[in-house]
């Protein structure tokens, strides 16, 4: 499973680990979108010099998350991405209605399913609204970025994209071709 991330997650992890864009790049990956993969994406595809891809946490060779410690704990727990915070819940906005569900493969991944504190409807709704707002913001940032890349106004390198996200969409275009 790939943990997709947004600008909010990137900023949270960067400030928790005191990382700049280069440091962040060592912990994330641009996963290629293949075939009809677009339809299943939670986060929008990003145009990069390595092709069209979506951003997620780097997975190690055994498939585990880069932030999973040897004792099976999350090494960035206070700064973990929103999708990890939400798991196993998923949220979607359809026709202005907020839908919540449970990840189809949750049983495979989550041994604690059904064992933790009961989450109230109100809490879920609050978390859902927050998640949708974050995704919309990220979609807008990515759409602006893809547009700049399409018009040839930036050289869409992965590092520039991370810098762009960390600056919440501010790009000094005079430096973007470096
Ligand atoms: S909770 Fe932590 S270790 Fe688990 S997937 Fe999320 S970031 Fe990685």
Any descriptors?
binds iron/sulfur cluster; 6 helices; two-stranded antiparallel sheet; three-stranded antiparallel β-sheet; alpha+beta; globular; 178 residues
Question: What do you see in this structure?
Answer:
36% of the residues lie in helices and 15% in strands. It is globular, with a radius of gyration of 17 Å. The chain is built from 6 helices and 5 strands; from the N terminus they run H-H-E-E-E-H-E-E-H-H-H. It is an alpha+beta fold. A 3-stranded antiparallel beta sheet has the order 1-3-2. It binds iron/sulfur cluster. Iron/sulfur cluster binds at residues 3, 57, 65, 67-68, 74, 76, 80-81, 84.
Tell me the layout of helices and strands.
Blueprint: H1 7-17, H2 21-25, E1 28-32, E2 46-48, E3 51-57, H3 82-86, E4 89-94, E5 97-102, H4 106-109, H5 121-150, H6 158-166
